[in-house]
UniProtKB/TrEMBL annotation:
Matching PANTHER family: PERIPLASMIC PHOSPHATE BINDING COMPONENT OF PHOSPHATE ABC TRANSPORTER (PTHR30570), PHOSPHATE-BINDING PROTEIN PSTS (PTHR30570:SF1)
Cross-referenced PROSITE patterns: PROKAR_LIPOPROTEIN
Descriptive protein name: Phosphate ABC transporter substrate-binding protein
Keyword Iron-sulfur included in the entry's annotation: no
Organismal lineage: Bacteria, Pseudomonadati, Bacteroidota, Flavobacteriia, Flavobacteriales
Organism: Flavobacterium fryxellicola
């Protein structure tokens, strides 16, 4: 009978490593469900305060750990294409060209609309103006002389607010004169609170949910009423005006899940779109995609019956 020589030790060690690696990969996939495990979510930084609240409550209710990465809109979109199985939160839907790229990769993004946000114009508390005309803002961004506006301040050049306002003005880049950019919404609020005659442009949830360190700066700015492109009425960025589609700078928010399996992306999207998540949005000052129901207890007993 022919005898086989025993396998060398290094071959046995290699087989053992491969088996362990396969088991570890299998285990890591099994560990993540729609309500359990770890995930990274890329979020448009203009929406960070709202999403931080959602994550805090989600983690408290489930065995989940979500790492939030706040970036500019263009960086979040890049992460969707470059990171495998990415989850992102944006103030716009994917374009037809972007969807075609995913289709070519055989990826079908799950897109969940969950709220309506507002782009807010802010001024220093000492400013006499309480109303701004959208037509004049657009003219200023197009480089036309506009006596009523001295300057506009954005968060950063790659942000969703810059992209949104550029689209309204029909331009591809902001003018070199009179329009300034920082890095964050907090920096815009702080600058406007300390300087008169400037109009800041921020996501409205940065005003309704300021951090303790920012409260004093938020207290020193006013959100302006905005006169739209049609008619003479001006509107404040309130929930009611968003619901009635009166505020002219409203934008819908989306969760875009490219995981491709039933993971935390699906669970988080369901949570945000569900009763608890929608109540968090309602409390934040934004408009939920659906208004949570309210329960009333009617006591039919009279005081006479109790005696």
């Amino acid at each position: 009978m022919k005898k086989f020589a025993p396998l060398p030790y290094f071959v046995l060690f290699l087989i053992l490593v491969l088996v362990c690696a396969c088991n570890q990969t299998k285990t890591s996939k099994e560990e993540e469900t729609i309500l359990k495990g770890n995930a990274t979510i890329f979020v448009d930084e203009t929406l960070s305060p709202l999403i931080e609240d959602q994550v805090a409550v989600f983690e408290k209710n489930y065995e989940a750990k979500i790492k939030l990465v706040s970036k500019s809109e263009s960086e979040v979109v890049n992460a969707l294409f470059n990171e495998k199985g990415a989850i992102a939160i944006l103030s716009r839907n994917l374009t037809a060209d972007e969807l075609n790229i995913f289709k070519a990769r055989k990826i079908n993004p799950k897109i969940t609309p969950f709220a309506t946000d507002a782009v807010a114009f802010i001024s220093n508390k000492s400013s006499k103006d309480s109303i701004v005309s959208l037509i004049e803002v657009i003219s200023f961004m197009q480089g036309k002389p506009t006596p009523s506006i001295k300057g506009l301040v954005f968060d950063n050049l790659n942000s969703s607010t810059v992209r949104y306002m550029n689209a309204l003005a029909g331009i591809t880049s902001i003018p070199k004169s009179g329009v300034f950019s920082f890095k964050t919404n907090d920096e815009v609020i702080k600058y406007v609170s300390e300087n008169t005659d400037m109009i800041g442009i921020v996501g409205v949830n940065w005003l309704s949910q300021p951090s303790p360190a920012m409260q004093k700066y938020v207290d020193n700015v006013n959100a302006l009423r905005v006169k739209g492109l049609v008619g003479n009425e001006s509107y404040f960025p309130s929930q009611n005006n968003l619901a009635e589609r009166k505020y002219p700078l409203a934008r819908d928010l989306f969760i875009i899940n490219c995981q491709g399996y039933s993971g935390l992306g699906m669970g988080f999207a369901s949570f945000v779109g569900g009763d608890i998540g929608q109540r968090i949005i309602l409390k934040s000052g934004l408009l939920p995609i659906r208004i949570p129901g309210r329960k009333f207890i009617i006591d039919t007993k009279s005081k006479k019956d109790e005696k």
